[in-house]
Amino acid sequence: MQKPGALEATLSEQTFNQLRSIIQERAGIEFPEEKRYLLESRVRPRLVACGLSSFEAYTRHLRDGRDSVEMTHLLNAVTINETSFFRHASQFEALRDQILPELIEMRRKEGTKTVRLWSAACSAGDEAYSLAILIQERIKPRFPRMKFQVLGTDINTEVLEEARAGEYRERAIRNVPETYLRKYFRKKGRERGNSYVLDSSIRDMVTFKALNLTDSRDMRRMRDYDVIMCANVLIYFDQSQKKQVLKYMHRALRPGGYLFVGGSEALGDSASQFESVQKEGALAYRRSREVRSRSPT
Length: 297
Ligand SMILES: C[S@@+](CC[C@H](N)C(=O)[O-])C[C@H]1O[C@@H](n2cnc3c(N)ncnc32)[C@H](O)[C@@H]1O
Hints:
Elements (H helix, E strand, L loop, with lengths): L12 H15 L8 H15 L4 H9 L4 H11 L10 H22 L3 E7 L5 H14 L7 E8 L2 H9 L1 E3 L8 H7 E4 L6 E4 L1 H4 L2 E5 L5 H5 L4 E5 L9 H14 E8 L14 E5 L2 E5 L11
Parallel strand pairs: 1-2, 1-7, 2-6, 7-8
Antiparallel strand pairs: 3-5, 4-5, 8-10, 9-10
The structure holds S-adenosylmethionine.
């Protein structure tokens, strides 16, 4: 039951600091001072849902650690999930025209039969499905014997449900070429605006699972990827978290595999562990083809 006061509650500076440090510890996401009101408005519905009347009580509830499900709800509420199909067009062109054909040739010579792609922080699945469409349309016909696995991961369990459902608003599919739109999306409903349901032939190519990029246990299990797309998420982390995540990504790639980040993101110092390659106007980061001994961290 909602107690009176939850809707009027305000987030004091002290509680804001406590709450943002909980979020940063759990998910790496930073909330700078100027985002205090954003955090307040995102978290308020959680107070209501928990029947608590103040942010102080909510923060205590999280800290006492007995309600692990609430932590999931909190992270679902505070993550920014903006995404769309074929978001960074030049990256998909580079993958289609150069990176995937070259990688597949290389893997074929090595005797590898499966190429593995990972959309890390995939939100509602748009990026992972864009990869699947690209593979289905442009790569499989050229390499019919090769198998492909596409994985989408995110910390937000609600967007993962949306990803599995595969139903999208017009805005999300605005960059999908007309031919793919006609072939792979079915228009549905009219009252609250159209939505577009993705065909099961593409949905079946992608697996989704919850994963926290800043959790060492989650990340140590990620191995042997040929391509990782990790766009528009490192921008929410502080420098040391970002560095650590990039270390995990490097280790998760097969030698010769590629990492993409968002179009205008920079890797800073962490770039030095990769080879920077410019392909078709897109900047990619390649793990060296030499196999080095695995670092213990
Ligand atoms: C702005 S969206 C980017 C989606 C997609 N990569 C793109 O570029 O279109 C950022 C996503 O990162 C996810 N995220 C934030 N922190 C995360 C973490 N620690 N581990 C995994 N995913 C995280 C959010 O839930 C959100 O879906």
